[in-house]
Amino acid sequence: MQPFISVFSHVVALDRRDVDTDAILPKQYMAMVSRQGFGRYLFDNWRYLKEGKPGDEPADREPNPAFVLNAPAAQGARILLCRANFGCGSSREHAVWALADWGIRALVAPSFAEIFYNNCCKNGVLPIVLGGEVIDALFAKTQMAPVSLSIDLPSQTLTEADGSEHCFTISPTQKQLLLCGLDEVAHTLANYREQIMGFERERFAREPWLVRR
User: Fold this and answer.
1) Is the pTM of this model over 0.85?
2) Which residues contact 16 (CB under 8 A, 6 or more apart)?
3) Which of 17, 89, 149, 179 could form a disulfide with 21 if both were Cys (CB 3.0 to 4.6 A apart)?
4) Long-range contact list for 171-176, CB < 8 A, 24+ apart?
5) Residue range 36-73, pLDDT digits in tens
6) In this predicted structure, which of 37-41, 153-157, 158-162, 193-197 has the lowest mean pLDDT?
7) In CATH, which of 3.60.40.10, 2.60.40.1970, 3.20.19.10, 1.10.275.10 is domain 6-170?
8) What pairs with residue 109 in β-bridges?
9) Dihedrals φ, ψ of 201, to 5°?
10) Other beta carbons within 10 Å of 76
11) Residue 213's pLDDT band (boundaries 50, 70, 90)?
12) What integer pLDDT is reported at residue 186 of this predicted model?
């Protein structure tokens, strides 16, 4: 997983409240077994005029010209500006995989569903919570001209093109996961491998019948 240190990118503004995980990645794609390839189905019901199915190629489908991710200006964007309660609904981690696979590195919103927020931090996507007034102002700016933002995780700051700086909070553990590009299992092994191995050696010496011979 790619570590998150900083990102500078133009913004895609998704002006919809309560975007649930089924909108982010529809249920018919949940049967896919690999984490790769979900990006082509991101916001599938909104990006295309007809419902899709696993294996459909984007080039063979008719895009919805009114959806923001289909605009030429959205291509290459790494930051998604969202409204409140983004990521609500089912706890499917696949929704975050789809965002990451499409290229999104950071989400900026006034609030996120709790499980979705945690899934983002475990999968290399930084969820940033800012006040409602700041979010409203950013949306208003996207209506007038393209908006670019600079995000620095070590200093926990988001900076606008005019120099306006906004601080955000994140737990130390989740910050470390993102900075190192680790999920919780990899983080545990990286920091406690010797303790785990020591416990295993002691346990198998004490209870040798646990080891297949």
Assistant:
1) yes
2) 82, 83
3) 89
4) 174/118, 174/121
5) 899 999 999 999 999 998 888 888 999 999 999 999 99
6) 193-197
7) 3.20.19.10
8) 129
9) -60, -45
10) 10
11) low
12) 67
Tell me which residue has tokens 């959806």.
Answer: 67
Alpha carbon distance 8, 159 (integer Å): 9
Q: What residue ranges do the domains of the chain occupy?
A: 6-170, 183-213
Q: Could you give the CA distance from residue 9 to residue 105 in angstroms, rounded to a whole number?
A: 10
The first and second tokens of residue 180, run together, are: 């190192």
Instruction: Provide the token pair at 101.
Output: 């696979």
Q: Which long-range contacts (CB under 8 A, 24 or more apart) does 155-162 make?
A: 158/108, 158/128, 158/130
pLDDT value at position 10?
98
Q: Cα–Cα–Cα angle for 107, 109, 112, nearest 5°? A: 90
56 is written with which tokens? 């459909």
Quick one: DSSP state of residue 103? T
DSSP string for residues in 121-187? HHTT-EEEE--HHHHHHHHHHHHHS--EEEEETTTTEEEETTS-EEE----HHHHHHHHHT--HHHH
